[in-house]
Amino acid sequence: MLIISMFGCGTGVVVVSIREIQYENEIHQIPYSPHVLLLRDTINAIQRGKLDHEWSYKVPRWSGEQDEKAEEAKQQVVA
Q1: Could you tell me whether strands 26-29 and 15-17 are parallel, antiparallel, or unpaired per DSSP bridges?
Q2: CA distance 32 to 66
Q3: Per-residue pLDDT of the chain in tens (79 residues, 90 and over written 9)
Q4: Residue 62 DSSP class
Q5: Does 8 map to a domain?
């Protein structure tokens, strides 16, 4: 069996290298690949907004002003 690299991914861990697997009672070592680190860093950069990607959307920073104005409007007394 020839494995040049292996990684796992999910919601808790974005990308993590897999060092070994067991198959039919035999442990197989998996070589380290810098491509896994590159993939992990790229996905993290997209998630944190440091790298633009066509699937990403930057949520504007919330200032709280709109909610304060809405709250003030609710508290105004109309006679």
Answers
A1: unpaired
A2: 50
A3: 677 888 888 877 789 899 999 989 999 999 988 999 999 999 888 888 888 888 878 788 877 766 666 667 677 666 5
A4: P
A5: yes
Closest by CA position to 36, among listed 65, 7, 10, 59: 7
48 DSSP 8-state letter: T
Cβ–Cβ < 8 Å for 18, 6: yes
Task: Establish if 68 belongs to a structural domain.
Answer: no
Distance from C-alpha of 60 to C-alpha of 71, rounded to nearest angstrom: 21
Evaluate whether residue 72 is within a structural domain. no
Count the domains in the chain. 1
The sign of the dihedral angle between the CA atoms of 40, 8, 17, 5 is: negative
Q: Is residue 31 part of a domain?
A: yes
